[in-house]
Description:
little secondary structure, two-stranded antiparallel sheet, 3 helices, 4 strands, extended
Amino acid sequence: KLPRKTHRGLRKVACIGAWHPSRVMYSVARSGQDGYHHRTEANKKIYRIANGSDDTSAKTEFDITRKAITPLGGFPHYGEVKEDFVIIKGSCVGVKKRVLTLRKSLRTHTKRSALEKVDLKFIDTSSKFGHGRFQTKDEKKAFMGTLKKDLAANN
């Protein structure tokens, strides 16, 4: 605990960088919404909130195929989605596993694009490594037939 009369503050990073370069680097953890470990995004349109372990999480009203949200082979540099997930419009800052805070916008939305109801027609679950052709493992197996690795797994 710091003494009563100190000005230094307690809940912050102690060393925020070297003497030179004489500025604070972007990667230093700072308080507030734009710190390296506190990314906050506003005005993102949310398309879907669902559970990743559910095997119908990528099913839509138009595409009734039973498939989970994880593409074949998993997401690059992430893997398999097992927990709850959010599909948003556009992109978000940071690397794949960085924590991101989504907060409600303070302004009231009046644009037509913000107010229109979204109907997802198709969610692509083909492989994100290379040229993905198949949406599900069953579809791939039906097209490819029995493979050598399937025979080795059975023996």
